[in-house]
Specification:
9 helices; 3-stranded mixed β-sheet; globular; single chain; mainly alpha; binds zinc ion; about 220 residues
């Protein structure tokens, strides 16, 4: 028992005594001390702030091993927004690794760009065929749009892995975002793929080559 729960049970006893002395005939409720401990734990849980991008990133992302969120399918587009990754992307691109080195050979600062570019959640791709995971334009200020039925999410239409990363995993999400960012920065070997799925896959391969190790799992 720590000092806080000691204090808490002391207070409980004080008020129980007070209730007894001021209202004769009324039986005060009993508070078993084992319960005050779990009560205090409950209070602590309640004051933990809601998750933000930073907290998610520090825990290594939602994709794998987060039983709390996976349990209820909470990893869907309704709960996990693509802009939650912004901090993790800035950190990666400001860090010293193969991925940031590759981006630094492009035009402009990828880290500066991702820190202010709009990141939005689009509408599901129309039609029965699986559509793009995300898209953007070369213009550095054009938003990056992530699609809720793409591989940014675990319930993607096409269940294909990205490299060996599962759809909806933290690593897959990072690769998707880096691919879009590469359209704005043009690191060496990255090409326009607007009209070809196979060109897009080649580009993703390039991103994997340089960034798979840096994105973590
Ligand atoms: Zn592309």
């Amino acid at each position: 028992m720590n000092w806080l729960s000691s204090l808490f049970s002391a207070l409980v006893q004080f008020f129980a005594g007070w209730a007894q002395s001021t209202t004769p005939g009324l039986t005060p409720p009993t508070f078993p001390t084992t319960d005050t401990r779990s009560l205090w734990d409950g209070v602590q849980d309640a004051v933990i702030p809601p998750m933000s991008g930073g907290i998610i990133d520090e825990s290594g992302g939602f994709g794998q091993g987060n039983s709390l969120l996976e349990a209820g399918g909470g990893d869907s587009a309704a709960n996990y927004k693509p802009w939650y990754l912004r901090d993790a992307l800035i950190r990666l691109l400001r860090g010293k690794n193969d991925c940031s080195d590759w981006f630094n050979h492009g035009t402009g600062s990828a880290a500066d760009l991702i820190s202010h570019v709009p990141i939005v959640l689009g509408n599901p791709n129309p039609g029965p065929l699986p559509g793009a995971d995300a898209d953007t334009e070369p213009n550095p200020n054009a938003p990056i749009t992530v699609y809720p039925d793409g591989r940014f999410y675990p319930n993607s239409d096409n269940q294909l892995p990205i490299g060996d990363f599962k759809p909806g995993s933290h690593a897959a999400r990072m690769i998707i975002m880096l691919h879009e960012l590469a359209h704005k920065v043009s690191p060496p070997g990255f090409t326009d793929d607007a009209f070809s799925t196979s060109d897009s896959e080649k580009n993703t391969k390039k991103v994997m080559e340089h960034c798979a190790a840096a994105v973590g799992r």
